[in-house]
Amino acid sequence: MSLNPVRHITIDCHDPHALARFWIEVTGYLPDEEPDDDEVLITARVPDAPGLLFIRVDDAKVVKNRVHLDIEPPAGTRDETVERLLAAGASIFEDHRAPDGMGWVTMRDPEGNEFCVERSAVERGLSTP
User: Fold this and answer.
1) Which residues form the Glyoxalase-like domain (predicted)?
2) Architecture of domain 68-129
3) pTM, rounded to two decimals
């Protein structure tokens, strides 16, 4: 029995397959997709972590997300992760990095959904490289 009550985090989108591929790049999750399906689930490599479920919808995103994901880089730095995600199709929405290295970057995925990239555990002094 899972102790985590959150099974999936669902994201409405125009192209679930393309958006799932972007989020696989962000998270390292594993795909579970059918080519003609209007839904794509990607799952974590660790037990009990919620999956990300992308569902095709016709309506466009028009306002800021009410819920977003905060991404902690599992390897490397916040800034390296931001650069990698820019190359994968993300854009910077708001940059909250401070000269002293603190802060985060609010980004948008290819369909405009906001998410934040925080400093890694190493950058926060919580683990060693």
Assistant:
1) 8-117
2) Roll (3.10)
3) 0.88
